[in-house]
Amino acid sequence: xxxxxxxxxxxxxxxxxxxxxxxxxxxxxxxxxxxxxxxxxxxxxxxxxxxxxxxxxxxxxxxxxxxxxxxxxxxxxxxxxxxxxxxxxxxxxxxxxxxxxxxxxxxxxxxxxxxxxxxxxxxxxxxxxxxxxxxxxxxxxxxxxxxxxxxxxxxxxxxxxxxxxxxxxxxxxxxxxxxxxxxxxxxxxxxxxxxxxxxxxxxxxxxxxxxxxxxxxxxxxxxxxxxxxxxxxxxxxxxxxxxxxxxxxxxxxxxxxxxxxxxxxxxxxxxxxxxxxxxxxxxxxxxxxxxxxxxxxxxxxxxxxxxxxxxxxxxxxxxxxxxxxxxxxxxxxxxxxxxxxxxxxxxxxxxxxxxxxxxxxxxxxxxxxxxxxxxxxxxxxxxxxxxxxx
Length: 390
Fold this sequence. Notes:
The chain is of the alpha/beta class. Among the domains are: 84-189, 3-Layer(aba) Sandwich (Rossmann fold); 194-316 and 344-377, Response regulator (Rossmann fold, 3-Layer(aba) Sandwich), CATH 3.40.50. Helix content is 37%, strand content 16%. The chain has helices at residues 3-19, 23-27, 37-40, 99-112, 128-141, 154-160, 194-205, 222-238, 255-267, 278-291, 319-330, 362-377, and strands at residues 84-89, 116-121, 145-148, 168-171, 186-189, 212-217, 243-248, 272-276, 294-299, 310-316, 337-338, 347-351. A six-stranded parallel beta sheet has the order 2-1-3-4-5-11, sandwiched between helices. The chain has a six-stranded mixed beta sheet with strand order 7-6-8-9-10-12, with helices on both faces.
């Protein structure tokens, strides 16, 4: 029997029992009829849905963090530029306080700056055969630039350069076209000593009492001729009647011969001296020290040789010349002639504060300072006189 049938029978039984009750009860208001089966069988009230547990709040979605930029890939390093390899022949000692030390310090400066790989031969042979042997050895190695730091190396360089067209050669000729430099891989580099010589001559003109200047040169070549001619022109700015006695020694290395030549000039009245050549300057300075006369240093600060007698030194900053060559080789722009003047830092006049053998006149010192600035500024040009006038 179903649940619904049982409920219906119970309802009938209740009705019958009510009919059999006492009259009083009957007289009373009949009770409200019991709920019908339909009422009993009420559809259960729709259950209110249980209050839902509040859903656990999901944490608010975090704003995505700004992405950090990915680390940049390091830029591929460009390969370091190849250094220019340089070999230099120096015909004298590295510490000679003159010709070779000036050149040595010049190339060492470039090496210290990381511009070149360097090989040096000092006391290198002067003769053509010996110089050719040394230079051809460097050329066979594939050195980029072979430098012969002497006028004497010009002939062997011109002889051998055509056999090594990919190697650059440079020699200290100071010819500027006078010597007929030929060949696409040959350069002559200039020693513009005529500029500091002119300025030093001004000082000499303010010192000399006799008006006679003594000069000795290793050889009568353009650079030496230009040096002594400029020195006299400078002296004549202060002392118009100044004259010069010349000695051409026929040697770069004979200091004793230079000393004798200086003594002979002193006997003829010369009291201020200049030289073109490293051994020539040594012999000259020694003689002037012994006689209490005045002289000028050659291409390097030589005041230590005679602190009382060296007025000033004409110091060659040759590293600037070599720098131009090296940069041009790196740029494939090698030139036939290199000429770095005082306006570009090629030379300096270095005064000796201990000089005491004579006195530079105030007029000469004032003119020296004026001309020095004009030469550096490029507003005063010192003539380059490569041969004896007349």
